[in-house]
Design brief:
alpha/beta; 35% helix; globular; binds magnesium ion; binds adenosine-5'-diphosphate; P-loop_NTPase; 9 helices; Rossmann fold; 6-stranded mixed sheet
């Protein structure tokens, strides 16, 4: 059985069909890239899956549990994670404190963090930092980190919730090619180790073709193609709509 199953999912804004009845599935252990030109409906799709936007129609199920209609927090509790921008959260904390916070939030013990000893979950947080290659920077403030390292911390924060499905909206935006590859190689390793799944959007076709197990292509709210990267690369509709050739 697929981990994620999307059937007939749709959402309109006024007269605009942002997402017009799409179907796709995602297996555990895989990375699925969602591509398409601006305005294709990628973000709307993500937001319907994590509950930020309520779908007008269709179904999203995770391991057989229907997610449409659940509030975002419950969808998150079901194991649907997304990478957050650290800048929006706790940039004044150290790296490891950010992870401790995320672990406490996962365990519904967020207020414990502010106790004087502040040792809660440090070991567990350090294990997560090790997995994303950030152990040596654990006690630095997040504000002192390079952009590509912030991305790794964001990944560790998302992992603290033990996601089965992780949504990543343009994870490598603003990064140099080498850093992009490092981040995606790390993501792929984590997906396999944890048998989770990643749905990501990405502008760099190099990254998509190198790291996606499968791809889906949206244009004007419609799913125009899906398949393995090699199939998509040569798909005539994709060439026409997406690459403009
Ligand atoms: P993408 O992420 O692929 O660029 P979006 O999902 O953001 O595409 O947008 C799909 C379409 O829906 C676009 O035409 C966009 O203008 C429209 N849209 C998205 N969000 C809203 C909104 N909150 N209100 C009105 N229109 C929206
Ligand atoms: Mg978008």
């Amino acid at each position: 059985m697929s981990l994620l199953k999307v059937v007939g999912l749709g959402k309109s804004f006024g007269g605009v069909k942002a997402v017009d009845g799409i179907d796709f599935e995602l297996q555990a252990g895989q990375l699925l890239a969602l591509i398409g030109p601006n305005g294709a409906g990628k973000s709307t799709t993500f937001n319907m899956i994590n509950g930020q936007i309520r779908a007008d129609r269709g179904s999203v199920s995770l391991d057989g549990t229907e997610l449409v209609g659940l509030p975002p927090r419950q969808i998150w509790r079901q194991g649907v994670g997304r990478t957050f921008q650290i800048a929006e959260t706790f940039s004044s904390l150290t790296v490891v404190e950010n992870i401790q916070m995320a672990l406490l939030s996962h365990q519904k013990k967020i207020f414990t963090f502010w106790s004087p000893a502040n040792k809660h979950g440090r070991e567990q947080a350090m294990r997560l930092l090790e997995q994303v290659g950030m152990l040596e920077q654990a006690d630095r403030p997040c504000t002192a980190l390079a952009y590509s390292d912030i991305k790794r911390v964001e990944l560790a924060i998302a992992l603290a919730n033990e996601p089965r499905l992780l949504l990543m909206d343009e994870p490598t935006a603003g990064m140099a090619p080498k850093e992009r590859n490092d981040l995606m190689a790390l993501t792929k390793k984590l997906v396999l180790e944890r048998n989770m799944a990643v749905l990501f959007t990405e502008h760099s076709m190099d990254v998509v073709f190198a790291y996606a197990d499968r791809m889906i292509v949206l244009a004007r709210g419609r799913l125009i193609a899906q398949g393995q990267p090699d199939e998509i690369r040569h798909h005539p509709k994709v060439q026409e709509v997406y690459f403009g050739t």
